[in-house]
Amino acid sequence: MSGDIKGARSGPEENRLQGHWLLAKMGKRVLRPGGLEMTTTLLEHAELKPTQTVVEFGPGVGKTASLLLQTPPSSYIGVDPHTEGTSDVSRILKNYPHVASRLVAADAKDTGLEDGVADMVMGEAMLTMMSPADKIATMREAARLLKPGGKYVIHEMGLIPDDIAPELAQQLQKEISRTIKVGARPLTMPEWQQLLTEAGLAVEFTYSNSMSLLEPKRLLADEGLVGVLRIVKNMITNPAGRKRMLAMRAIFDEYADNLCAVGIIATKPLAE
User: Fold this and answer.
1) 42: how many CB neighbours lie within 10 A of its CB?
2) Which of 82, 134, 139, 88 is nearest to 106 (CA)?
3) Cα–Cα distances in Å, from 2 out to 6, 7, 11, 13, 145?
4) Theoretical Cys-Cys bridge with 14: which of 46, 57, 165, 240, CB 3.0 to 4.6 Å?
């Protein structure tokens, strides 16, 4: 066993990267389970206005940040404890000098930002990777940051059907976590909604989509032809990365009947 661990640590970096950073290294820019379609649908319904402030949890490489900034809001705050995507997001922010923007190195469940700073908080593909305690803590932090009437937008991995057998859910979580090298704990739509309610928020909009992150049709829709060609080139020239990507696609295909993408918009109640 110790020899396997040592070999994994001394092998290619691609063998150790968490799934989303592996995909980013291979050229993928849209790293959300429901694709660009779900993100844009959620943003349309959230109706961010030019006078408002948005906080984004886990901007990653900045794809959603670029969409948010196109509104544009009056200010943008990106919160991420990791620095892998900081340079990418910073480059995007420079394209919108008229928006007051900043990046904060902090955990989403303890941002250090002031109460009621945001009209909208958005987080994608992050709650899925958290423990149950961290999920609810992050949702409560989003609620704290929101002004009354503000909206919390999430885009996560989901389980189907709603009455999925617990044994199957546990098996699926274990297999996906092993493949993407980070703990994955997706929930059913009702379970996601229940957590948001426990955090003091009122669910006002739900949306679901297929979990087709690495399928050719979704890749083309999300990345465009140039983006797909970039990914293909990287797969040809990077055997270790190609192997990981194919393993991820295989596990998503294996559990296709029990995986989906979940989008929810929840509102902080108005003060009485």
Assistant:
1) 24
2) 82
3) 6, 9, 14, 18, 45
4) 240
Residue (of 204, 200, 206, 201) closest to 187 by Cα position:
206
What is the distance between the alpha carbons of residues 34 and 264, in angstroms, rounded to a whole number? 12
Q: What is the CATH number of domain 15-267?
A: 3.40.50.150
Helix (H, G, I), strand (E, B) or coil at 36: helix
Rounded Cα distance, 158 and 161, in Å: 9
pLDDT tens-digit readout, 14-36: 899 999 889 999 999 998 999 99
d(C-alpha 229, C-alpha 225), whole Å? 6
Which parts of 126-250 are beta strand (E)? 146-159, 187-188, 202-210
Torsion of CA 152, 126, 56, 14, to 10 degrees: -160
The Cα 226–Cα 241 span in angstroms is 19
CA distances from 25 to 30, 99, 238 (A): 12, 29, 10
pLDDT digits (tens, 9 = 90+) for 108-155: 999 999 999 999 999 999 999 999 999 999 999 999 999 999 999 999
Which tokens is 267 given? Answer: 């509102």
How far apart CA 32 and CA 38 sit, in angstroms, is 9
For the chain, percent helix, then strand, then coil, each to nearest 5? 50, 20, 30
Report the SS3 class of residue 258.
Answer: helix
- pLDDT at residue 240, rounded to an integer: 95
Q: At residue 152, what is the residue type?
A: Y
Distance CA 267, CA 140 (A): 12
- Listed residue (237, 244, 245) closest to 219, CA to CA: 245
Give the model's pLDDT for residue 272. 53
